[in-house]
């Protein structure tokens, strides 16, 4: 039974899913735009929005939560100093998804996930 289990499974076990989402979030914060499948983009969007909201708070507890979620001090510093101040006036919705169409090999729906503004 999957009672109280949030999120998509993405075809793997929980630890691999968590590692994959962490890697996608770090890539998005580094490049501000990534190309991935639609289901992965929809799932990582929740993580990215949560971390940016912590960055807008800016206190020590929020920084520790972001570090526990991402695991990279440089990326957390970039989120808190560069990315989060750009979204001070915005109440959520920090990412945008552009649909690209099916991937050539397996026809998986591909998208571009990017930070707004």
Describe the structure.
This protein has a 3-stranded antiparallel β-sheet with strand order 1-3-2. The model has no long low-confidence stretch (mean pLDDT 94). The N and C termini lie far apart (41 Å). The chain is an alpha+beta fold. It has helices spanning 14-31, 38-57, 60-70, 73-83, and strands spanning 33-37, 95-102, 109-115. It is globular and about 45 Å long. Helices cover 51% and strands 17% of the residues. The chain is built from 4 helices and 3 strands, in the order H-E-H-H-H-E-E. It has a single domain (15-115), classed as 50s Ribosomal Protein L17, Chain: A.
How does the major sheet shape up? 3 strands, antiparallel
Order of helices and strands: HEHHHEE
CATH architecture: Alpha-Beta Complex
Provide mean pLDDT, rounded: 94
Structural class: alpha+beta
Shape: globular
Task: Report the sheet-strand fraction.
Answer: 15-25%
Contiguous uncertain segments of 5+ residues: none
- CATH evolutionary superfamily: Ribosomal protein L17
Secondary structure tally: strands: 3
